[in-house]
Design a protein that fits this description.
It is a single chain. With 230 residues, this protein is mostly helical. It has one domain (2-225). A hairpin with a 3-residue loop joins strand 1 and strand 2 (143-146). The chain contains 9 helices and 2 strands, in the order H-H-H-H-H-H-E-E-H-H-H. It has helices at residues 2-14, 26-54, 57-81, 85-100, 109-112, 122-128, 147-157, 168-185, 197-213; strands spanning 136-139, 143-146. The radius of gyration is 18 Å and the shape is globular. The protein is 61% helix and 3% strand. 27% of the residues are buried.
Amino acid sequence: MKKVLYIILFISIFSSKIYSDDDPWRLMNENTHNFNESIDKIISTPIAKAYLYVTPDILEIGVSNFISNVEDVSVGINNILQGNISLGFSDFCRVIVNSSIGVGGLFDIASKINLEKHDEDFGQTLAVWGVSSGPYLVIPGLGPSTLRDAFGIIPDSFVSPTLALDDNRASYTYTAIDVIETRARYLGLDTLIIGNKYLFLKNAYLQKRDFEINNGEIEDTFDNFEELDF
């Protein structure tokens, strides 16, 4: 996943597809971006660094695999909703294999037996159904999104394991671990950001969504690099 993000960030710098006319809420978005940056600097990044420092590599991998295994339920449902029945079946097979032989998802046995990991969500499903992305939107505490992707978060939350947990403490613990693990996974990517961070992250996010919605096919021509507003 991290390799894909490096590719997206690189293409976001050089691609001729610059997203300049899809941000009617820019003032609000920039204020939210600045708020998120402050929270990330004060809280999220220090906690993520501490997590990486105190957690053995093998445990980090296990936590990442566990969260990925839980996410495969939503991935499978969205693949089926998009008409990718065989891929959805494969996703559910991943859950069964990793939840059993993989000791509750701590070990990614499914990938070792060629059950490929996919990355689908309801935002992508809406895109496949023909729903326009709508304006770019920065969500407080969550970051870059679009109006379509923001609505997509709601259905995805209904298949979250936190809804199946009767114990609020367990639910909050899982959510906290998920947030910390995700932030820790992206540490270091900030060093690739050049120029105006808001515009860079916006372009990178929209390129990433194009990449995901089109299953890896992305416009990568390098003309008009000078059009980037730094």
